[in-house]
């Protein structure tokens, strides 16, 4: 049996609740790229990404920083004349890249995401200090010191948690998550 | 007395505790009770939704199921929590298979979500449920002459839910007018603060913050009002880093809209969590009702 599914189709299949093949309807108008506040920092603009996916340019797409630079602001999505949920597309690419362990080197996004998920699965609530190791060492010395300065000021103003918050019914919560993903896969 | 099931979210426990304090104080004055959802968990932020949607929906559905038992509408003060909960409720109502799968997981905590719930952002409670007229009647110290930039950010208005105006909404401005302040024309009011890019793609996020601050300064605002803890932290706590990065000299206070409403209601500043900011408001602005109205500036049209 041969697997003939193309990269473009794989990505389409990851788009939740999308009917048909929304990416195929893209008219390459560039409204998304013109709207995106981060486009200037991306290897390829959102419009280029859609064209590349439609051309099955898997390697170039996965090697780009584009989807990790998406801030989830949905500005492109509300303006797309073809109603393509471009933010959702960026999510799908993040998911695809994490699942396949394929991402551009030197990005903070993937490690940060993993640390975040583990934190929630273990305690049920967010606790900022445990996230810091996932990114702080990627910073240069200057950024590192600025980040420490910020944390200190937050602490002095009573805005930094020092005790991790946990939900009460944590055992139930963990079993609930276990019904979605086996816990072995997360630890 | 009107009641809501209140989902504070992780940020409001500490980082944005002043948002929580001012939300509680101002709603009480309006005769509204915010009943915190018992044993709530994290909404999943943006991170969870792109890693595993099913798990993300389950996290939100647990909170919705607990809230549903109270029979009240849910209100979230954080834009990300609001967006996640709103769309989880909407998807679960529409997609029976998804709801079945999620409810199977919820059984472990003896919960079931049936989809009978409305999700609102805190700012909707002020701007729609209460409305500018009634809000105005509760104001004792109008913020006369205070020029405020109404910063909507992203996830209150986007993605689009029904047919609401996603390009030029006015509800924030109307609310600021109701408390006596002057909402300035703030062309970047719908632009993104960078969200979690401040951690993962710092240079990009700092430049986004700079643009927002510059636009507020150009609009002659003396304060930016926000309705989201992420926006507040990015615009305020990273202002110093923006100044270092771009050689700018910003020193613009960023307050939650509830803090401004509270000031106009005459609530003592301490109760509104004012004093926890990195950048303090000018003392004269903290004594509303006593500010000399500034001469009218020509509002620059876009």
What is the average of the pLDDT values of chain B? 92
Q: Radius of gyration of chain B, Cα only, in angstroms?
A: 19 Å
What is the gyration radius of chain A calculated from CA atoms?
A: 19 Å
- Give the helix proportion of chain B (percent range): 40-55%
Taken from the alpha-carbon principal axes, the silhouette of chain B is globular
Shape of chain A: globular
Question: Can you count the helices of chain B?
Answer: 12
Structural write-up:
The complex is a heterodimer of chains A (187) and B (302). Chain A folds into two domains: 7-99, Fumarate Reductase Iron-sulfur Protein, Chain B, domain 2 (Orthogonal Bundle); 109-181, no CATH class. Helices cover 46% and strands 0% of the residues of chain A. Chain A contains nine helices and no strands. In chain A, 34% of the residues are buried. Chain B is an alpha/beta fold and 302 residues long. Chain B has two domains: 2-121, Glutathione S-transferase Yfyf (Class Pi), Chain A, domain 2, CATH 1.20.1050; 141-286, 3-Layer(aba) Sandwich (Rossmann fold). Chain B contains twelve helices and eight strands. The longest helix of chain B is centred in the last third of the chain and has 17 residues, at 202-218. Chain B is globular. The N and C termini of chain B lie far apart (42 Å). The mean pLDDT of chain B is 92. At the A-B interface, helix 5, helix 6, helix 7, helix 8 and helix 9 of A face helix 2, helix 3, helix 5, helix 8 and helix 9 of B.
